[in-house]
Write a structure and sequence with these properties.
This protein is an alpha+beta fold. It is 62% helix and 14% strand. The chain is built from six helices and four strands. It has a four-stranded antiparallel sheet. The radius of gyration is 30 Å and the shape is elongated.
Amino acid sequence: MFSSLRYFWSEAFKSLFRNQFMAIASVLTVTVSMFILGGFLCVVLNINHMASYLENQVEMTVYLKEGLRTEQVMDVGAHLKKLPGIKEISFTNKDQAMADFKERMGNQSALLDSINGNPLPASYQVSFYSPNELKAAVDIAKTYSSVDAVQYGQDIIDQLYKIAQIIRISGIML
């Protein structure tokens, strides 16, 4: 058995040295093929992960009207919590909204000192599990009498969802 193994290896090395060009071409072809496959697989998996992450970042902001009583604000929050497909809901009052805005402004927050009062409204930030649940919730939230506006970036969400689907389908096909 040892002699047949030695014979096999000696014949393999003799063949490699007799046909050097073919051996190098074979090794390079396999190496390039594996490199392309690995690179493509890495790109597809990362894009798929990014698309899944973006799909899960589906949220709307419900801006409340000025001068609402605490009961009215709490009532809107209670109605929003009953909407289907809610992942998380949080409330931001006027003062917190201004503090957050000043923090985002950074060095230019001194510009806000010239504003009399606080023009920012209180709001609820509501995140959902899927874009389909968001669309239904937006239509319901707009009907509340205490709600001034609802912002949710429908065009961006629709485009992200379509892009994610295209990436998944093309990844499967390729």
